[in-house]
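Human: You know discrete backbone vocabularies at least as well as I do. Show me how you would write down a chain together with its backbone fold. No explanation is needed for now; the record alone will do.

Assistant:
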Amino acid sequence: MARSSATMMNNRQTGLALYIHWPFCVSKCPYCDFNSHVRAEIDDAVWAEALLADMAYEAELTAGRPVHSIFLGGGTPSLMPPALVAELLSAAGQHWGFTEDVEITLEANPSSVEAARFADLAAAGVNRVSLGLQSFDDDALRFLGRAHGAAEGLAALKTAQQHFARVSFDLIYALPDQTLEEWRTMLNKALDQGTDHLSLYQLTIEPNTRFASDVRRGMFDPMDGDRAADFYALTDEMTRGAGLPAYEISNHARPGQESRHNLTYWRYGDYVGIGPGAHGRRLHEATERHKKPENYLSAVERNGHGIKLSRHLEAQEAASEALMMGLRLTEGIDLSALAQRFGLPQEAIINRQKLDMLTQMGLCESNGDQIRVARTAHILLDAIIAELAVFEEAAPAC
């Protein structure tokens, strides 16, 4: 039986994360299933007004909770005018206040045009950049539909490191014809760049992308699972050896340099999401904004916010989500803490029989109530979570 949210931990006085979605890109990458749109013209003043109104609505609901992290994602938020970024950050500070060590991350593409804005973005308050390099190989970048070349990407990385204390970058691996040695060489180059955080993603063919259509038409075959597992194992070995171990299945960092914002998601903290298609989770509710930019603007003008769906999270559903998110982390979960947080018995959160079986198989590790997926089994994470989680039908959206 699901418990009322009144039995759940009261998060009203704890910190908060803020996600701001800028939905516009110069072009759509063939692998991308994010909410991104190409528009010939963008009225920055209209978007400033809408985002500020959407933020004010959320701030009224979550007043008194200082923001410890902000993430500007997209889309391509590095295409935002730095003055707009400064205006949004200033408003967030006025609404909530920031913790002393607030992390403010902006996603950026490594084009020379965007790199030229880095100084102004740093002056606006951004203190961490996540750079979408994706590859150091020109042929791979063309295959991935990226607008920059390898040399331009490296130049943008150096520029970012001059302006921001913390710089992360992304690479995509396990491309169809990539060899293990090619990836070893590229990863060595990445580890030589002096960054303290890397996001390393296997190429995944997502539905409703151009790559999904290309695969259906036989234009290329994705890398098979066994080969991809070899790439994953090499990635884990090399990053650990370089002092940037995985702290989440695709994210690697030196101790203390983990993305505070993403840890909020994986540790099931509260976060506000504004902008087209943004998701949020606060006050025991899951929210989703209108995805299409024009629909979002209309909703904000009509309602004072961009929310399309808002759904109450019962304790059972929230606990299952917290389990699934927490097991993505190499630190795993504290089952007793989850049970206390959501006011549920442990057997309502995890299937103990399956946990014992997976532990005997070497796929999970447990020390009392501390549970995690074995490092060598992370490639099987989705299947393991499906075995362990206890699900209950979600409440209907309102």
In short: DSSP finds 15 helices and 15 strands in the chain. The domain at 315-388 is CATH 1.10.10.920 (Arc Repressor Mutant, subunit A). Residues 1-10, 394-398 have pLDDT under 50 and may be disordered.
